[in-house]
Batch of 3 targets.
Target 1
Amino acid sequence: MLRLKKIMAVGVVALAGAALAACGNNSSNSSSGTKKTLNWMDKTEIEGMDLSKVTDGTSFTQLNNTMEGLYRLGKNSKVEPGLATKTTTSKDGKTWTFTLRNNDKWSNGDPVTAQDFVYSWRRTVDPSTGSQYSYLFSGVKNADAIVAGKKRPNTLGVKAEGKDKLVVTLDKRILYFKLLMCFPLFFPQNQKAVEQYGKSYGTSSKTTVYNGPFVQKGWTGSNLSWKLVKNKNYWDKKNVKLDTINFSVQKTPSTDYNLYQSGKLDAALLGPQASKQLKNQKGYTLRKTSSTIYLGMNMKKKPFTNENFRKAISLAIDRKELANSVGGAAEPADTLSPENMIEVNGKDYTDLVRGEATKQFNTFNKSKAQAFWKKAQQELGKKSFNFAILTYDDDASKKAGEYLQSTIESTLKGVNVRVQSIPKKTALNHAGSGNYDVFLMGWTADFSDPISFLDLNTSKNSQNLEKYSDPTYDKLVADSKVTPSETKRWDDLVKAEQRIISTQGVTPLYHPEEAWMVRPSVKNVIYNGAGAPYNFKGAYVAN
C-alpha cells in the first residue's frame, strides 16, 4: 500500500481492503463442480499497472495476479516457485544464479527471458523513470549509485546469460532477498511493449502486457470496474481454476453489504456497527494486515516543522476511540511496525520497541498535549493555526478524518482543522508534490521485516513524503543494513523506531484488521498481510 503497500492512506496499504465474491447466477459451472467466475471488490481504484512506478496496494494486487517473477508468495508468506526452476547461491551470499522456465510467454506472444528481468530492473533504478520504490534495490551491486545519478543503469549487478539464466550480484548479503523477489517491483517487463506505448504504458489494460496467471481487461485508467481473465499463455495455466475475476470498487461498506445480502457479492467489507453485530455469524472473517495507518505531517511547512507541535497532535489522539470509529478489528498503534510481523529471539519485535518513547508520545494524554501545544505556541510565536488533513474519499478514511478533526480541535484550543477527502489518485498526486499539510496515510510491509517501514523516512528516500530528516535516525537505519551481526542489526532497528517515535517523524494511529462476511463457497484465495496481499492463482468458487 506513494505510501504499502503500496501507499495506503486508511484505505491502501490504504486499508487495501478487498472482498471475495462469486458472481452468483452469472457464474458458469465447470466439470469439476466449481464456478469459473469470481467477483471481487476493492475499496480504492487502481493507481497504475507500470510496476516500476506504482505504489499502492490495489495496483500491486493486480500486478501480483497478472505478472510473475522469480518466485510467488504462497500461504503464510511461504516462498514458492515462479519463473525460476533452479537457484544457486555463492558461499558469501553475494551471487545468485537463477535458471528460468522456457515455456512462459507474454500476452503479446513474446517469450519471457532473462533479459526481461535485466531490462525491468535497470528501468526501475534509472532516475529518469521516477520510481519511488527504487530504494528497494539497495544492496544489488551499484544500485545506490545509479539511483543517485552517479552511475549508469547498465552497471547494475544483473545480467542475462542466454535466454534462461539470470545472474544477480549483490554488494552485501541480503538475508531477505528471496522475499524481495516475490514483490512485483522485481518482476520482468517486456521492453517492446514499454517502448511501443511510451508514456501510456501501464495506464490502461490495453497498454499493458502480462505474463502471470491472468490478463487484465476493461480498465481505462480511471474507471471503477474491470476484470481479470485466465491467461492462455501462462506456463502453469492448468492450475488456474478461474476463467474470470470481476472487480468493482466499493467505497461504502453499507453498499457492499447490501450487495452481499442480495446474493450479488459473496463477500463484503463490514462497517463498525455491522462488524460488531455479525461477529458470531457464519462467514465472519478477519483479515490481518502487516500495516499501519498514521499521520504524516509536511515538515516543509509550519507549524509541522516544530517537534513540540507534532507531539501535541499525537498526544491529543485517543487511538482506541479512533480504531473503533473506523470499524473492523483495528488495533490502536503505539509502534510504527505492526505486531505479529516478525519475532526476534522468541519475542515479537514490537515488544522490543515499546518503552518510554511509545508511552510518552503515542498515548492519549490531554494535559500533556496542551503543555506541548503551549511550548509550540511560544516557539512559533503564534497562538493559532489552521490546517487540512488530506484523506481518501472512502468511508473509513472519512470517518478517521472526522474523528481526528474533532479530537484535535477540542483538545488544542486555537488549532482549526479542515478535512479534505478526495479520490485516491488525486490525493496521491497532492502528497507526492508536497501539496498538503497533514496526510492520513498508511503502509503495508513489502516483506515481513521492520526495515520495510523504517527505510521510508530516511532523509533521501523518495517515499519520505513528510521530508523528515534526522541524522541519528538515518545512521541507525544505515548501520542495520551493513552490520554482519544479527544482534546489532535488531538493536539498530529498535533504536531507529524509538527515535522516529520520540521525535514524531510520523504519528502511528492504528494497525488495521478488516472484518468481512465471506461465503464459505469461496476457496483457496491466498492472503498475506505483507507485500501484494492477494494471490488468486488457485482460487475457485464451489457449487
Target 2
Amino acid sequence: MADGPVLARLHFGREDAERDVTEGLLLRGGFLPNAAYRAALSGRKMLIIGRKGSGKSAICMQLSADGGQHAGTVLVTPDETAGEEIRRFELQGLPGDSAKSLIWRYLFAVHAARHLVTHAKDAHRRKLDSVKALARFLKQNGESAGGRLGDRLAQGARGLQTSLSLEAFGVKAGVDLASAPSEGAQAARQLEVVEQGVAKAFTDLGCAGEHGPLLLMVDQLEQVWSAESDSNSMVIGLLLAAKHAVSLYGGAVRFLLFLRADIYDSLSFGEGDKFRGDELRITWTEQALRDLALARARASVGAEMTAELLWGELFPAVVEGEETASYLFRRCLPRPRDAIQFLNLCQETAWLIHGRERITEGDVLQAGRQFSDWKLKDLALEYLVAHPFLKHLFPLFQNTGYVVTRAALATRFEAAAESLHRLFPAYADALTLPGIIDVLYAVGFLGVRRGNDVVFAGGDDLPVQAHEAEFHVHPCFRAALGATSAIDLRHFEPLVAANRIVQGNFQSPAVTGLSFPSRDHRLVQELRRSCHSILAQTSRAVDLTQDARDEIARQINRVLDEANVLAAASIFDLEDQLLATAHYFDTLAAQLLASGLDDTAGGAGGVAGRLEEESRRLRRLAGGSYGSSGSSSGS
C-alpha cells in the first residue's frame, strides 16, 4: 500500500457510475459482476430492471468499457429534448404505443447504419453496394454526422411524418408510397425500406458470424419519464421496437434496455407477457453489498485490503452491539448507491471532521443520523413523479415507535385524510388507508411482519395482504423520524399531525404500482391531450392554406380554453362535457370533408381523420375506458 494513513486513501467510489468510470475506480476493480451483468454480457436477457441506485448504469458503463466482445457499442441516454420529441410523436392511423415504436425503430436503424458504414471500412475493408446505399441514405437525410440526439430525433420524426429520402434504396417516396392509406401506414412503409437496407448490409458483411454483435443500449429513461400516458407509451414503444429489431437483425445486433422498476411495473399493454423471458431484476443481498464494499476498498487502497482489516481495524468491530457491516447494511436500502454513500460518510466523518485514522463507533452513529436525513429526503424525490404526496405521509410516523399497527395507522390517517385530499385532490383514489400502505410498502419505507420475519419490498415478495396488521418503518429512516424505539406510548396528537401534513414538512430530531390521479382529473387531462393532438395534426397539414389552418386551430383552442376553465374551477362531472366535445369533433370533421379542401393526409383529410379518432377516444373515456398506455389516437 502507498504511504500515508490508509483511512485517508479509503474511498468507496461515486454514487453515479459515469463519474466512477471517469475517475477510474470502476475500471480498477471497483465493479462487482453480478447475475444481471452476466446475463447482459451473455445476451440471455434484454431488460435489466432495478430501482434507482441499484447499479443499472454501472452495468451499462462496464459493458461499454469492456468492448472486446462486441463489434461496437452504442449508448442512448435521452435528454429532456429527445424525450419530448418521442413523447409527442404521433401518427394518424396508429395508436400511441405503435407510433412511438416507429420512432425508436428509426433511431435503432440509423445507429446500426452508422456503425455499418464505419465498421465495413475499418474491419472488413470492403466496398459493398448495400453499405454504400446506407452511407447515401445517411447523407441524404442528414444523419451521417453527430449532433444532439434531440435534434436528430426531431428531424427523423419529421421524415417519418412526411417523407424520408429513400432514393439510396431505389425508392422514390413521393411516387411509390403515395398509395399509403394513412400517415401511420406511410411511415411504416418508409421505415421498412430503411430497416431492410440495414439488414441486407449486415447479411452481406456476414457480421453475425464473423465477430461479436453491435451492442445497442438504452439507459436513464427515468430522466424523461412522467406518470402520464404518453410517457408510458414512450417506454412501451421502446420495448416493442427492441423486440422487432431483435427479430429483424438476428445475431448481428444485441439490445439492452435498462429500466427503473417502478416505471416498468406501471406499464400495461397487450404484448407485455412476451417480455417475461427477457427480464432480469437486480437484487442485492447483504453479502453482495459486503463483497462490493471490499472490492471498492481494494480498488482505492490496494489489493492488500482484507475483510478483517476493513471491518476490524478501519471500522469498529461492533456498533451498538451489532457486527458493523451488518449494522451498516441493515440501515440502508439494499442497493449500491445507498451503501456507497453511507460508507463514504463514515470515512469522511472520521477523517475529515475529526482527523482520526480509524473510524469509531461514534463516527458511525453520527454519520448514521446524517445519512438517515438524506435518505428520507431522497425517497420523496425518487418518487416525486409517481407519488407527489409521499413526503406528506412521513409525519404520520414522526416521533413515535417504528412499529405501527394497521389500527393505529388508521387513526393517524383519519386525522390527516382531509388535509391530504385538499392538497392532492387528483390522487384521492390512492389516498386511502389501504392505498397509502401499499405505496409505503412498495417504495421500501414500510415492511410487514410475516410470521417471525419483517419483509420489505423486493424480489418476488407478495404485496401487503388485507389481513396483515403490523408494519415496521425501515431502519434507514428511523433516525430522521425520531422513531428509534419500537413502541412509543405517548398519545398521538391528530390535530398536530394534520397541521404538519398541511404544511408538508416535519422537524428532524438530529411496480406495487404507481398512484394515478382520480378519474375526473384524468378526463380533463385527456380532453387537453385531444386538443393538443388535433392542433399538432393541423400544423402538419401543409396542403391546407395558412388561413384554413388558423381557423381550425382557433376553434380547437376554444375547446382547450374550456378544458382549462373546467380544471381551474375543479368541476369534475365531465362525462357530458367529453361527449359534447366528441360530437363537436365529429361535426367539425364532417365540415372539413365537405368543404372541398384537399382531403389527403397532408390536408383536410388528415385533420378530419384525427378529429374522428379523438372523438372515438373521448367517447370511450366517457364510458369508463382508461388504460395506462393511453394511446393518443384511436385503434
Target 3
Amino acid sequence: MTGEPFNWHDLLGRWQEEWVPRAGEDEGEEEATAPPGRPGADEATIAAAEERLGTRLPPSYRAFLAASDGWHVDQTAAVYQLGGAADIDWFRDPHDMTSLYEQHLDDTSREEDVLLAGMWRRALRLETESDMSHALLDPGDRDQDGEWALYVYKGWSGEYPDRYPSFRAYMEAMYRSFHADRVERPDFVNATTRAQDARTEEARVLALRGRYEEALPLLEEASSFGRPRSAALLHQVQQLLAPRGTSDYGDLVADARYLPELLPVVAMGAAHAARWPDEGEHWLRMMAARGVDRAVAEAVLNAVRDGTYRYAPPGPWGRAVAEARESARWGAGDTAWRVLRDALPRWEAPGPMLIAPIGLLADPVLGPLVTPERGREILATPRAGETGPAPEPVPDLDPPGLSWLTEPMPNGQAFDGYRCVWGEDTDPALLPALIGEDGARLSVPVDPRTASWRAPRPHEREGVELWEDRAIVCVGRTAEGWAFAFDGHSRSRLGKASRSPAAAASSSGRAVVLWRDAAFSTSEDHPAAFHVSVAERGEELYAFTVRGAEVLRSGAIPEALDPARLFRPQDSDSARELALLRALHDELGLSLPRFALTRGKLSTFTTRSWTRAPREGEAFAYLSFVRHRS
C-alpha cells in the first residue's frame, strides 16, 4: 500500500465494463456473461458484520464492501466467488493446518514462517465458491496502515499459500489475471488493453535508447496484464540482467526475423538436459509445435550442446562479433568486450520484437563474457538507430600478472596446483604440435574447470602407460603476446621423474614452464613444490625446483628469479608462491587471463607426458579413486 487515495468504483467499474468470458468458454452460460459485482453494502451492514466478527475490518476490504458487497473473482482453478459482508466468517482451521505448519518451526524459523503457521486459526475466510481453495485475511499479519495480508490456499496443489500484502493488492492482481486469461480473444480490446499496448511500445523505444530502467516497470506491468508483445521484450531485458538464466519466447522463435537470435538462446536450457534420453526429443517436439522446422531446431540444439554454435549476425555488428570472437577464443576477454562495446550502437534490430543482441548469450566463446554488469551495459547503450548518452564503461575483468592465481576462484576455492607453458612469439594454434601427444589438436571451446575432470585416465586409454602424466591444457594468448597452455585442475606432483616441456615449446623463441604441485598435505613433511624452467631455441637456459628447504638449480638464473631471494626460509608457502608469481611477471612479462580460465571457455588439447619413463631399478605406483553412490 502506498497511502494514496484509491477509488474502488473506478477499478470495479472498469472490470465490470470489460467483463467477457475467456476464449473458448460458452458465452451462452449466464455465469460467464453476468457482471461480477453487486451493489455496495451500506455502513450499517458493514458495521453489523464487524460486530458479529468482533473486529474492525482492514481499510481496503472495508472500502471494497462499500463499493461492491461481494465479487465474482473467476480466478482459474482456485477462488471463484468472494462473499459479501453477511457471508464472511472466521476460518477456524477445520483441517488442522496449524499443526502441519508448526511442526517445521524451530528457533531459526523466519518471522514469515511463524506468521503463516499461526494464520490458519485466526484468519477470516472470504470465499463462498472455489475449487478446494480459500481466500484468507490474516489479522495477525498486518502493516503500518492496518492492512491484513491475504493468503490464497489451493488445497489441491500441496503448495504454500500465495501471499498478498493486502486485499487491495489481491484484487489488483486478480484484475490483471482477468486480462491475461482473455488475451487470446481477438475481440478483447478496451481502454485498458490499448493503454498497456501503448506502454509496451513506449518501453520498447526507451529500451533501444538505453533507458532500460524506465522501460522495465512498464514492461512488467504490461506483461502482468498478458499483453502479447510485452513478455518477449521483458524477457530480453531480464535475460541480460541475469545472463545465465533462461527464457521462453513462445512462438516468436519460429519467426524468420528473430529465429537466428532467439532459437539458440532458447536451446541453451535444453542443451544440458538433452544429454538424457528423450529430453532432447521433448524439446524438439515443443519447437515443432511452435512452428520451427525440426531440422533447423535439431541443428541448433546440437551446435549449442556440442559447443560449435557461432553467433553470426549480419552487418557491422556481425563483423565486430567475429573480431571479438577471435580475441576471446584465445582468452583476451577484455579486448573482445571492448570491440563489442564500441560496435553496440551499430546493432540493428531485425524487427520490432527484438531490442537487444540476445543471441550473443548462446555463443560458447562470447556468451560467458556477458556478466550481469556487462548485460546492464548492453541495455544502457543506445542502439538500432536510437540516440542517448553512452553508459560508463564496465571495468576490465582481468588483472595484470599472475598473482591472482593465489586468490579464490568464483567457487570460493583457490587453485590447489597448476602448471603452465608459455611460448614467446608462438602461435597458440601451434602448441599441440610442439608439446601435444601424437595427433593432438585443439578442441572446441570448453569450460577449463571441467575439461580435465572428464578426460579419461591413463588406465582408461589404450596405448598410454600408467606412469604417464599427460595434461589436459587450455590454450590462449596473454596480453603481452605469449602463447600459453595451462593446466589448473590436475592433481599431479612434482617428483624426480618429472620433466619440463620448455625445450620442446621453444622452437621459435623463449619458452617458460611454471609448475606449482598440488598440495596434498600442508604438513612440514610435504611442503609445496615449485618449478621454473626457461628454454630458447630448443635448449634449456636455466631451471630450478624448490621443495621446502631443498633447492635444485641449473644454468645462469637471473637475479630477479634467484630462488635464494624469492624463497626465504621464514616465509610460508603462500608467501613464497606470491613472490615467485610477481617476479615472473616483472622479469619475463608473464600473465594469464583470469576470466577465461575461471569463468570462460577455451580450446584444449592433451600434452605429452610430464613424467619420464621409469629407469632400470625404479618403481612407480598408480592410484585411481572411484566414487560409488550408495
